[in-house]
Description:
Blueprint: H1 9-34, E1 40-49, E2 55-66, E3 70-72, H2 74-84, H3 87-107, E4 114-118, H4 121-124, H5 129-140, E5 147-152, H6 153-157, H7 160-172, E6 176-182, H8 189-192, E7 199-202, H9 204-208, H10 214-229, E8 233-236, H11 242-250, E9 255-256, H12 267-277
Parallel strand pairs: 2-4, 4-5, 5-6, 6-7, 7-8, 8-9
Antiparallel strand pairs: 1-2, 1-9, 2-3
Helix pairs in contact: 1-2, 3-5
Bound molecules: ligand C2E and magnesium ion (3 copies).
Protein name: EAL domain-containing protein
Organism: Litchfieldia luteola
Domain EAL: 24-278
Amino acid sequence: LAKHHGGNKLKFYSTEMNTEALYRLELESYLRKALEKNEFHLCYQPLISLATGKIYGSEALIRWNHPKLGLVSPGDFIPLAEETGLIQDIGKWVMLTACKQNKKWHEMGYKDLTISVNVSANQFQQMGFVAEVKEAIAQSGLDPRYLNIELTESVMLRNISYSIMAMKDLQNMGVKVSIDDFGTGYSSLSYLKNLPFNTLKIDRSFINNIHSSNSEIAIVKAIITMGHGLAVKVVAEGVETEEQIKLLKELECHYAQGFFINKPLSSKDFEKGLVNQG
Ligand code: C2E
Ligand code: MG
Ligand code: MG
Ligand code: MG
């Protein structure tokens, strides 16, 4: 990339810039058409209850499959969707699709399944957001208690007083709110005590090193203890080994999610998992 210095620095740099700028423009023009061309789908990653080992629900994760670019990861196109405003329509589609899917699973008999939906800053911070959630609930017929909205600290902190209001509105509708990637943001504990939320999701960077470092264990332990004290649920993200699961269970973490349990699955494969566990 532009950071590497070639022989002819200036030329190399400008070529790289052009390539990146062009790629971005191309990506943007493709992204504009992706919804109408039906190029998005959702994957569902199971969350299990550590007490029972059973599936508690899933997190909906967007996937973009472009005919020419192939699979583009959300880490690459969500920021672009944010910058261009396309996130409004994409986010709306995710919300409705996820609610409908979860309702379908309820109708199949899996009545306690929860669905978690990620919401990014520009989607959450627009005034119509709560109404949009209400609309998705009405259209899908999903009981709002089974919808969980995932917000990162940076999303909430962008406008803290508005965030508190909107989170309360969601909770008054029966919807639950999670703080995603907890521990990586900048929220101080004094913010945390004012934020109305139901679940803390411990960022996977803490879970990753849980067995190689005592300080990492101490942090995870402290977050779980804090969760119990605040009477909220705690989810461990990015669980990749059996040792991690064991330890999290000992620490009385409520839920776990990660590649050790399952990768994000198509709705069909998620269903197979439900059927198999009976
Ligand atoms: P996130 O909400 O923290 O989602 C968890 C991410 O961690 C997912 O990446 C998931 O595939 C990955 N993951 C799960 N278990 C493991 C594990 O054991 N190890 C490792 N290394 N990774 C694991 P994904 O699907 O690429 O999504 C990345 C991020 O993009 C999400 O982070 C979320 O912030 C955003 N995102 C995904 N879908 C949506 C969406 O529908 N709307 C919005 N606004 N953002 C989304
Ligand atoms: Mg999430
Ligand atoms: Mg996360
Ligand atoms: Mg993340």
